[in-house]
Amino acid sequence: VYYIDEPLYLASTALTKISILYFYLRIFPNESFRRATATLIACCIAYFIVFATVSVFQCRPISAAWKHWDGEHSGECNNVNAQGWACAVANIILDISIIMLPLPQLAKLKMSVGKKARLFAIFSVGLLYESLPTFEFLLIS
After folding, report:
1. What residue ranges are annotated as transmembrane (predicted)?
2. Confidence (pTM)
3. Concatenated DSSP letters for the chain?
């Protein structure tokens, strides 16, 4: 199950991040912001390609991913824990980058201080949401 689930999970997280970044592109016309957003989109695509490839080819031969548990088949597999930790770190870095990216643009918006405060509060909830897995990650390691 893990062998099939991991690439699907990676695709769903990468596509969710990319959809948020495309939403940012629709909202903010600033050229430097658009370049930074395009860079993050490229990082999300690279995140998916690298970790999906590592996940699919984690065992040699590939069939060892689902057959080596029975004791009749031989094969070698990567350290799945290290692979999971690396993926988690990359995911956290991408999430924080995506949450932080529009903050300077939001500060430049021409709106009342109260509306800006509410807008920043919404993004703060995103940072709080991301800080929980980061804190858990630090506790476990």
Report:
1. 6-25, 37-57, 119-140
2. 0.82
3. -HHHHHHHHHHHHHHHHHHHHHHHHHH---HHHHHHHHHHHHHHHHHHHHHHHHHHTSEESTTHHHHGGGSSS--EE--HHHHHHHHHHHHHHHHHHHHHTTHHHHHHS-S-HHHHHHHHHHHHHHHHHHHHHHHHHHHH-
